[in-house]
Amino acid sequence: MAFRPIIAAAELWDGDMIARRVDGQDVLLVRLNGVVYAYENRCAHQGVALSEGRLDGYVLTCRAHHWQYDVRVGSGINPATACLRRFAVKVEDGTVFVDVNAPSPDVRDTEDVGDGVGPVLIGCQGGHAVLEAIRRLNPSVEIHKRGSYTRVLAPRRCMVTRRAIEDILGQSFDFRAELEIMMPSFKGRMRLDDDEAVWTFEDDAMSGAEASKTGRSHPEMIPNAMPSFNDRLRRGGDEAISTFEAGAVTGGTASQTGRGQKELTQKRTYWHLSDLGRKPTDYDIATSRMHYWTSRGFEVKAPVSEWYERYQRGSDLRCRDWDQWGDPRQTTYTTYTTMQRTREAFVSGLLDSIGDDYDRGLSPQWVAVLDRVLAPLRYPGHGLQMVAAYIGKMAPSTHITIAATFQAADEMRRVQRIAYRMRQLQITHPEFGSKAQHTWQDDPIWQPLREIIETLLVTWDWGEALVALQFVLKPAFDELFMTQFGRLARAAGDDVLDRIFFSLNEDCAWHRAWSGSLIQTAIRDTPESAPVIEGWIENWAPRISRAVSAFRPIFDEMLPSGAHFATALSEIEQFGQRYRESLFGPSDVSSV
Ligand code: FES
Q1: Minimum CA distance residue for ligand 1 atom 4
Q2: How far is the CA of 89 from the centre of ligand 1 (A)?
């Protein structure tokens, strides 16, 4: 391949970006201060075309998730570890030429470096720390600054350790993964494990001298193997890392090529679960350790990282390793949809069994109660859904995130079913539900509950939100509506509503089961969390008690003796109390 004419230089104005396809490659051309740059038109994050982004001065911002690059050198600004693949470009006779197969000018590896060995590092915080660690650990090091990258050379042998880098950074450093990202090339033969990287002059390495020094069986990489890092990075970060880790973790997966060089072979995609000591289940694979930021922080510095720092890491609900907890039902997307398909079919059958005659047969008094309770029930239902989604979003492990997300989906299912039933009632009672929002906002029976839900919606601490929702609000809410109001429906001759609520309540039982086992795991791991949880329950319980009591007029209207609501209230209180005692033991906290 060779340089291809792409565009008349006069058509590419200063500050312009254009996309072209050249020899099967998507190319981004940028002109800045008279200089033309050519990069692969692909964001290093998830591959979105950078030509759709925004260029402000020399800063190119990807439209998708706002990763930013310095177009003068192709290196990342935010995150600093990112880098773009750069193509050779020239302007001759008023035409811009690009060669997509020429080596990137910034990582060209052709200079004569004698017996010097060591990495080429891109400019970023981690790269500087690696550089400094190499300086400290090796007696003689040459540093060659080359714009966006730095070549490090030590005579015949160069090494760096994770510990030295962490000492400099003052934080943990994911040695192999980070080094792969920040090292587009290196000179010499490289050996790498979790704690140490060593580059040796090839003749020494071939003689086995290095292996006998370390006494370890490291996987090996060869000079010129590193450009394939860029290839893997182009294909996507996870694959890139897992492909590389394959050889690094197993060691024995390296194989000889015909030229006597060693290659790395690919490892299973769930290599990160190797410490389970067993074959991972579908649940393990689909739900484990997907929040990389919980251990290493966010790659991109954005205001949201402070939010997580404060309301997730800063929460007083603590556990040393949240990943030790798993959903007792081991719910995956596949099992969830399979299970809910059956439940949905059951509820659909009940709803379909309702004809006009059924609704005409309901007493006006009961229809009025439904108008006051069933129609506005969508609003708190949406609130519960949003709080569950927030807990999932803020959770420190993907097991929790996924459980909370399915709970949010259950809440949405409940809202949809209520809305469907409401629409059915409107066929025979056209005004049904027309004032539902007004009822939710003004009717005294709803106001204590509305206050709680709206407060919970702005309870940012994920631990407090979890405790207040799962252990105080929902047990009372679900029992009040799904059980006690369902019974009231049956007493009013509305059996179908009772049966629908019974089915929806099966979801609620799982909400209690997963969150109960989660909180027990946290308390077992970090007993200091127990008084914190108790404090939150003490704070929220009296409000929930008031919210439940506010529904007395509804029960008294349908069953006037007054004794029915007293019984219902007592059952709701005992239900919540028993649930909490099963998790935390007996408590003096006022019952709900
Ligand atoms: S794809 Fe560019 S920032 Fe995510």
Answers
A1: 65
A2: 25
**Mean pLDDT for all residues in the chain:** 82
Residues 6+ apart with CB under 8 A from 590: 538, 541, 542, 545
What is the total count of domains within the chain? 3
Does any ligand 1 atom lie closer than 6 A to the CB of residue 437?
Answer: no
Separation of 129 CA from ligand 1 center, angstroms?
Answer: 26
CA neighbor of 493 nearest in space, from 398, 348, 364, 388 = 364
Neighbours of 209 (CB within 10 A): 14
Residue 231 is part of a domain; what is its CATH number?
A: 3.90.56.10
- Cβ(295) – ligand 1 distance below 6 Å: no
Convert the pLDDT of each residue in 223-280 to its tens digit: 333 333 334 333 333 333 322 333 333 333 334 444 443 434 444 455 566 666 666 7
Q: Which helix (H) or strand (E) covers residue 318, if one does?
A: none
Ligand 1 contact, 52 CB (< 6 A): no
Residue 68 CA to ligand 1 centre (angstroms): 9
**Residue in the structure block whose two tokens are 């390296």:** 254
Question: Percentage of the chain with pLDDT > 70?
Answer: 82
> Cβ(101) to ligand 1 under 6 A?
no
Query: How many whole angstroms separate alpha carbon 532 and alpha carbon 108?
Result: 57
473 and 498 in a single domain? The answer is yes
Residues 427 and 366 in one domain: yes
Q: What's the pLDDT tens digit per position in 464-474?
A: 999 999 999 99
List the domain range (segments joined by +) for residue 205. 107-263
Ligand 1 atom, smallest distance to 50 CA: 2
> What residues have CB less than 8 Å from 477, skipping those under 6 apart?
380, 384, 449, 544
Report the C-alpha gap between 430 and 416 in whole angstroms.
19
Residues 6 or more apart whose Cβ sits within 8 Å of residue 130: 119, 121, 160, 165, 179, 182
Q: How many CB atoms neighbour CB 127 within 10 A?
A: 24
pLDDT digits (tens, 9 = 90+) for 396-454: 999 999 999 999 999 999 999 999 999 999 999 999 999 999 999 999 999 999 999 99
Ligand 1 atom nearest to 46, measured from its CA: 1
- Spatial neighbors of 339 by CB under 8 A, at least 6 apart, are none
